[in-house]
Amino acid sequence: MDRLESAKRLAQRFGVSLDTAVQALESAGYDELAAADILSASDGFWGGSQGRYSTGSPPSYSPGSRRISDAESMGEFLRESWKGFISVITKIVRSFCVIRKKGAPVFRIPTVVLILIIVLSRLIAAAALIAML
Questions:
Q1: Among candidates 39, 29, 46, which has minimal Cα distance to 9?
Q2: Which residue would you say has higher pLDDT here, 79 or 55?
Q3: Residue 42: which pLDDT band, with cuts at 50, 70 and 90?
Q4: C-alpha to C-alpha distance for 25 and 39, rounded to whole angstroms
Q5: Which of 28, 27, 10, 26 is nearest to 69 (CA)?
Q6: Which DSSP symbol is given to 57?
Q7: Which end of the chain is less packed: N or C, by CB atoms within 10 Å?
Q8: Taking the model in full, what pTM does it have?
């Protein structure tokens, strides 16, 4: 059996990271059953009582969903989410709205400024409407 497949199976079965499953396999001499015993130990280093499944299939959850099992994977999830957010903001800041007339650029405005103008104009319109009531 391939060691990587064993590690993936253990990681999915016990809800731990792939690195943790590999460490358990290495400490068990690449014996999958012994690694499973290590991962399911109640007071062990490998995650305590989280995700104990000695037999049967792992708990059902929708494919594509991320299962957060410990603080390390939560931190990783937050870091990846933050990177995605920063990436979107960076793309917005670097993009421009260009108004052209007969193919030639007439006006170029950063997308962020355009968004702010639209939001502020809506707020002013809403304030004027409320003032009229």
A1: 39
A2: 79
A3: very low
A4: 9
A5: 10
A6: P
A7: C
A8: 0.34
Q: Determine the Cα–Cα distance for residues 100 and 97; give it in Å rounded to an integer.
A: 10
CB contact at 8 A, 14 and 51: yes
Task: Work out the average pLDDT over 22-43.
Answer: 79
Could you tell me how many helices (H) and strands (E) the chain has, helices first?
Answer: 5, 2
CA 9 – CA 1 distance, rounded (Å): 11
Residue found by looking up tokens 């937050």 in the block = 78
Q: Are 20 and 13 in contact (CB under 8 A)?
A: no
Is the pLDDT at 8 greater than 80, yes or no? Answer: yes
Amino acid making up residue 46: W
Would you give the end-to-end CA distance of the chain in angstroms? 75
